[in-house]
């Protein structure tokens, strides 16, 4: 995501080096999840019109670029599409899955109730962003993008930089980078919450991986919790509108 969203996108060679750095660090038998999407590319052309045709077009384009060297393990819409029910979204993806286009279906940026409705069809397997405590009921694994996303996104800053200041304080105290403090905080949320940090170069990839072994002291977690809750509305990320997803 970070690779394409920059004003000057990361060169392919540098991006591939960042990915390889992560692969080289994997223990034996461990697989890496690469999260990518055409909607992150430039120019941005997000649209919910004719989403069935667009979904098929995007999937076929990815498969064309992979040239048979790798399959799509998992596919999802970046958002639950407004104006169409959760069930309609899932039926569209299920049809593509049935054709062998990909192996698994996921959900992104939606409410716990949306997850429950999708799960009623026993279709999806992966859920990034916007974690909610209720998801523990079904032991759903939540991948949190960009380092911090439960109530705020690390790439965003509040007007008075209060969150950034606290993160910097915690980072200095523990002799880690601010990015590592963010990742460690996300990991502290729940065993089913997994940080999914972005990276555009090798050094950051290795730094992010090292954060997986960091456990923040309880007092530091509480300090971050307090300031995040106080500013959560300023950094709220749009999730699916409950009024636009009625069956």
TrEMBL record:
Residues 52-121, 157-227 form the NADP-dependent oxidoreductase domain. The keyword NADP does not apply. InterPro entries: Aldo-Keto_reductase, NAD(P)_OxRdtase_dom_sf, NADP_OxRdtase_dom. The keyword Transmembrane helix does not apply. It holds the Pfam family Aldo_ket_red. It comes from the Eukaryota. GO terms for molecular function: oxidoreductase activity. Keywords: Oxidoreductase. One of its GO terms (cellular component) is cytoplasm. PANTHER family: AFLATOXIN B1 ALDEHYDE REDUCTASE, PYRIDOXAL REDUCTASE-RELATED. This is NADP-dependent oxidoreductase domain-containing protein.
């Amino acid at each position: 995501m970070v690779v394409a969203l920059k004003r000057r996108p990361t060169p392919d060679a540098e991006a591939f080096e960042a990915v390889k750095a992560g692969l080289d660090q994997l223990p034996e038998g461990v697989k890496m999840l690469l999260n990518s999407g055409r909607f992150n590319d430039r120019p941005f052309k997000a649209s919910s019109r004719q989403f069935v045709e667009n979904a098929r077009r995007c999937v076929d384009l990815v498969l064309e670029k992979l040239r048979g060297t790798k399959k799509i393990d998992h596919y999802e819409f970046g958002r639950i599409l407004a104006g169409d029910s959760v069930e309609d979204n899932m039926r569209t993806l299920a049809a593509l899955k049935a054709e062998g286009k990909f192996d698994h279906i996921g959900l992104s940026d939606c409410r716990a109730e949306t997850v429950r409705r999708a799960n009623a069809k026993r279709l999806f397997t992966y859920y990034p962003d916007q974690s909610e405590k209720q998801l523990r009921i079904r032991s759903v694994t939540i991948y949190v993008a960009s380092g911090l996303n439960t109530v705020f996104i690390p790439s965003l800053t509040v007007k008075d930089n209060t969150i950034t200041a606290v993160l910097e304080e915690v980072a200095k105290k523990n002799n880690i980078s601010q990015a590592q403090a963010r990742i460690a905080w996300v990991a502290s949320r729940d065993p089913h919450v997994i940080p999914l940090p972005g990276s555009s170069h090798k050094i950051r990839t290795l730094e992010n991986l090292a954060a997986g072994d960091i456990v923040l002291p309880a007092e530091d977690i509480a300090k971050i919790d307090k300031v995040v809750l106080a500013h959560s509305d300023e950094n709220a990320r749009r999730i699916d509108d409950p009024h636009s997803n009625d069956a």
